[in-house]
Specification:
Blueprint: E1 6-12, H1 19-27, E2 34-41, H2 47-53, H3 55-61, E3 64-70, H4 75-83, E4 90-92, E5 99-100, H5 105-114, E6 120-130, E7 136-140, H6 153-158, E8 171-174, H7 175-181, H8 196-206, E9 208-220, H9 233-249, H10 255-295, H11 298-308
Parallel strand pairs: 1-2, 1-4, 2-3, 6-9
Antiparallel strand pairs: 4-8, 5-9, 6-7, 6-8
Helix pairs in contact: 8-9, 9-10
């Protein structure tokens, strides 16, 4: 029986220090039918040269590697472009600075979907999070009560980071199911935002997600990641809301339920913004007070303190 084709799509922006590890981890997979599409989102480093140098290695392995360059449109824009090129039966989308920590990751994800019924649209593995030196700093694993939880739609919206975690490469989608919920293969894009909500939410609303209970994918936590550069916290949270809003608007669901989801999402995001704003104001006040103490003579500061008393 012929194996189903797995499509690996990856956005890349100035990842020349990391992309080779991802490429090597794909080459090392025990699964034999893989195509990889890398969309270079306007890199100015040596990412292109490194990716192209792997073309012969992929061909020798029996895999196809396709490199596409586009002007910078953000991570979700790169994924959106790659979706139109996917030929596979199954889809994974690892970030350029992450990697598969087991040679059997794709094989185990495929097996979980191959042996599932049509009610299942996705599968996922558990995750390790490491710093740039490779030291594990955290993990994302399912607790005993959640190991067999398959309805993850609201978890994706409201429990991001606990029951549902936002690691791009840890998920695999059945493209037949994705095409039913997103027939144009077009997701909402915004320069500062990734793609997980746009890919996962439409599938999770209609289908179940299985969990392979092993840590088989690794996230590299770095400050200059593609999704973090040049965006402050308030702007990012507002982008999150727009992304969720636009994605939910594309899902065929009762309008009352959509309003409930958006209301709850807006409240959660506004709470985060309020906390961040208050924290920023307190920091600003502290800096002003410290500056006044440094600039004004000590006696003048003490005089004002006495007058307030």
């Amino acid at each position: 029986m012929t194996q189903k084709l797995v499509s690996v799509i990856t956005p890349c922006y100035n990842a020349d220090k990391y992309i080779a590890k991802l490429l090597d981890s794909v080459l090392g997979q025990t699964y034999d039918r893989i195509e990889m599409i890398i969309v270079d989102d306007g890199s100015t480093d040596s990412s292109a040269e490194i990716i192209k140098s792997y073309s012969a290695k992929f061909k020798k392995r029996g895999f196809n590697l396709e490199y596409v360059y586009q002007k910078n449109q953000g991570q979700s824009g790169a994924i959106n472009a790659a979706l139109k090129m996917v030929k596979g039966d199954y889809l994974v989308w690892p970030d350029a600075d992450d990697y598969y920590s087991s040679n059997e990751t794709i094989e185990k994800l495929v097996h979980s979907l191959d042996t599932s019924d049509d009610s299942v649209g996705m599968s996922r593995v558990e995750l390790s999070v490491v710093d740039e030196s490779g030291k594990e700093i955290s993990e994302h694993v399912t607790q005993a009560d959640d190991r067999y939880k398959t309805n993850l739609f609201e978890s994706c919206l409201f429990e991001y980071g606990s029951t549902f975690w936002g690691a791009a490469g840890g998920y695999m989608i059945k493209m037949s199911h994705f095409d039913k919920v997103s027939p144009r293969r077009d997701i909402y894009t915004e320069r500062s935002i990734g793609q997980n909500w746009q890919l996962c939410l439409p599938v999770l609303y209609e289908y179940k997600c299985l969990t392979v209970g092993e840590k088989l994918y690794t996230i590299v936590a770095r400050r200059n990641s593609h999704s973090r550069r040049g965006v402050n916290r308030v702007a990012r949270e507002k982008s999150y809301y727009r992304t969720i809003q636009q994605t939910l608007n594309r899902i065929d669901m009762p309008s009352r339920y959509r309003r409930y989801l958006l209301s709850k999402t807006k409240y959660r995001i506004q709470t985060i913004i309020n906390k961040y704003t208050l924290k920023s104001r307190n920091k600003a006040r502290f800096r002003v007070k410290r500056g006044v103490k440094l600039i004004l003579p000590y006696g003048v500061v003490m005089f004002h303190k006495r007058r307030k008393r």
